């Protein structure tokens, strides 16, 4: 939610890939490229509260996520849960905070052109 990691990447993420001391997560991207994504302070704080964070998958199973999305979409959004909603929100926030499309695009595993195209399409 705070780092803009793709949902599919989170589903493959293991606790061993998260380093709270350096506030980074090593992500296996959709093109199988690894990238190091910085974690904002709030993400480090929240992840630090999770018990038994030594090993194993970070995300719950696909079926658990699907059930949660159905309930959350209805109660929070009043309808359909949009794909990558947290990733897009994080991208907007990170771009506003860091003012560098190149840096943010690298963290998200995209090019600056793709990042700016997607953001402008959503705003317009």
Description:
- The protein has 124 residues and is mostly helical.
- It has one domain.
- It has 6 helices and 3 strands, in the order αβββααααα.
- Strands 1-2-3 form a 3-stranded antiparallel β-sheet.
- The radius of gyration is 15 Å and the shape is globular.
Summarize the structure.
By secondary structure, the chain is mainly alpha-helical. The chain contains six helices and three strands.
List the helices and strands and how they pair.
Elements: H1 7-12, E1 18-19, E2 24-28, E3 34-38, H2 41-48, H3 62-77, H4 85-98, H5 101-108, H6 112-123
Antiparallel strand pairs: 1-2, 2-3
Helix pairs in contact: 4-5, 5-6
Salient structural properties:
3-stranded antiparallel β-sheet; mainly alpha; single chain
Which class best fits the helix and strand makeup?
mainly alpha
Rg, Cα atoms, Å: 15 Å
Distance between the termini: 23 Å
- The percentage helix is 40-55%
SSE topology string: HEEEHHHHH
Globally, the shape reads globular
Domain count: the total is 1
Average pLDDT value?
A: 77
Beta fraction = 5-15%
Major sheet: order of its strands?
1-2-3
Count of discrete alpha- or pi-helical segments spanning 4 or more residues: 6
How does the major sheet shape up?
A: 3 strands, antiparallel
Uncertain stretches: none
């Amino acid at each position: 939610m705070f780092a803009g990691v793709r949902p599919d990447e989170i589903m493959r993420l293991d606790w061993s890939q998260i380093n709270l001391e350096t506030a980074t997560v090593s992500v296996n991207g959709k093109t199988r490229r690894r990238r190091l994504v910085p974690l904002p302070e709030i993400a480090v704080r929240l992840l630090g509260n999770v018990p038994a964070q030594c090993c194993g998958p970070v995300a719950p199973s696909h079926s658990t996520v699907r059930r949660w999305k159905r309930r959350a979409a209805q109660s929070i959004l009043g309808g359909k849960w949009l794909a990558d909603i947290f990733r897009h929100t994080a991208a907007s926030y990170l771009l506003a905070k860091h003012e560098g499309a190149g840096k943010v695009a690298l963290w998200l595993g995209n090019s600056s052109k793709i990042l700016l195209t997607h953001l402008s399409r959503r705003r317009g």
